From TrEMBL:
Protein name, UniProt field: Uncharacterized membrane protein
Transmembrane segments: 7-32, 44-65, 86-106, 112-130, 142-166, 178-200
Keyword annotations: Membrane, Transmembrane, Transmembrane helix
Cleaved signal peptide residues: none
Organism expressing this protein natively: Lentzea waywayandensis
Length: 230
């Protein structure tokens, strides 16, 4: 599929925004200062798990952005595959750490529920993305990577939703602040997945998938045998 200038510009701008917001959010943890942590913590162990989750997630965003650049896939397939390995090596542990950190949240179920669901879905989409790549089912691999990166990008869109909702309810704290935080977390990945599915359907990616199984059925093998004999 030919890449238009508009599509390339959209990829470039959205990629730069993702990278900029991700680096800004992770910068608070570079100095390993617990007092700079945004969520309330149980202690040093909780902080260590959170830092590991954030930095592996940051690597996933940076590596994932490169996977959607058409020229990289077309002209430098080895670099594309190498960055893909980096992406999976970051997502799989980061998603598991995300589940653990969600259970340690001091804000209760309102905070832990969306983060747990997000992390589990993130792990599953990465697993299917890796499996389809190894099986060389590249049509399905593309679809799972779009879904997976939609969840990876939840780290970015969650902050944007938080800012948007916070501007509608300025000065919110306590129960209202928790409501904004929980709503932003749900919207961060639910909306992303809806947009991803719309993108998959609108670009016709499902129509390019093979309509038959990779392994021929018994009847098709018999037909092939008959044809070869004839």
């Amino acid at each position: 599929m030919k890449t238009s200038w508009g599509y390339a510009a959209w990829l470039a701008v959205s990629g730069l925004v993702c990278v900029a917001i991700t680096i800004f959010a992770a910068s608070a943890y570079v100095g390993l200062d617990m007092s700079q942590a945004r969520p309330p913590l149980h202690g040093p162990v909780h902080y260590g798990l959170l830092v590991a989750h954030i930095f592996t997630g940051t690597v996933a965003v940076l590596a994932g952005v490169s996977q959607f650049w058409p020229r990289l896939r077309g002209r430098h397939p080895r670099v594309h595959r190498a960055m893909g390995r980096v992406y999976f090596a970051a997502v799989l542990p980061s998603s598991v750490l995300g589940v653990v950190c969600a259970q340690l949240s001091l804000a209760g179920l309102a905070s832990s529920a969306p983060l747990t669901v997000l992390s589990v879905l993130w792990f599953v989409t990465a697993l299917y993305g890796l499996k389809t790549a190894r099986r060389r089912q590249f049509g399905e691999h593309r679809i799972w990577m779009i879904r997976g990166f939609a969840l990876t990008g939840a780290a970015v869109t969650g902050r944007l939703w938080g800012l948007a909702l916070g501007s509608l309810m300025p000065g919110s704290d306590g129960a209202d602040g928790l409501l904004i935080f929980a709503t932003a977390n749900w919207l961060s990945f639910v909306v992303n997945l809806l947009v991803a599915e719309w993108w998959i359907q609108s670009r016709g990616y499902t129509r390019t998938l093979p309509s038959v199984a990779l392994k021929p059925s018994i009847s098709s093998r018999s037909a092939q045998s008959s044809a070869s004999v004839a």
